[in-house]
Amino acid sequence: EIAPDIFYGEAGISDAIRHLLGSSKVPLSAVEIKKGLSERGFNMEGYTAPLVVIHNTLKRLDKQGELVVVRSGSQVVGFSLRSKTPGDFKREMQERLHSAYGGKVFEDEK
Questions:
Q1: Is the pTM of this model over 0.90?
Q2: Contact 76, 69 (CB under 8 A)
Q3: 3-class state of residue 79 by DSSP
Q4: Cα separation, 89 vs 96, whole angstroms
Q5: Is 43 in a helix, a strand, or coil?
C-alpha cells in the first residue's frame, strides 16, 4: 500500500501525472497512471471518465514534448517523462532570456 501524498491532493491532473511519471523508474500505461494517482490520493471523483482525461492529458503532454511514448509495434504500451539534458536547460533558458531581453545572452552563442 502506498501512503497518500499531500501533493496529489492539491495538484491538477497535468502536474500530478508529471510528478507520478517523474518518480517512476519504468514507463507507465494509462491504466497504471490512473491506479498510481488514486493510490497517492489524487481525487478523480470530479471526472466522469478518468481514463479519457488521462489519455487526453498524455496526448497534450506528448504534443508539448514532455513525454517519451513507449511503443510495441504500433501499440502504445507506456509513457515516461522526458529527461532534460543540461543542453536542453540551456536552450530553454536562452529562449526565455531572448524573449525577455532580446539579442545574444551567452558568450558561446552563434
A1: no
A2: yes
A3: strand
A4: 11
A5: coil
Q: How confident is the model at residue 84 (pLDDT cuts 50, 70, 90)?
A: low
The x, y and z cell numbers of residue 37, run together, are 494517482
In tens, the pLDDT along 42-79 reads 888 889 999 999 999 999 999 998 899 999 888 999 99
DSSP secondary structure of 3-41: PP-HHHHHS-HHHHHHHHHHH-SS-B-HHHHHHHHHHTT
2 vs 102: which has the higher pLDDT: 102
Question: With 0-12 CB in 10 A as exposed, 13-18 as middle and 19+ as buried, what is 16?
Answer: buried
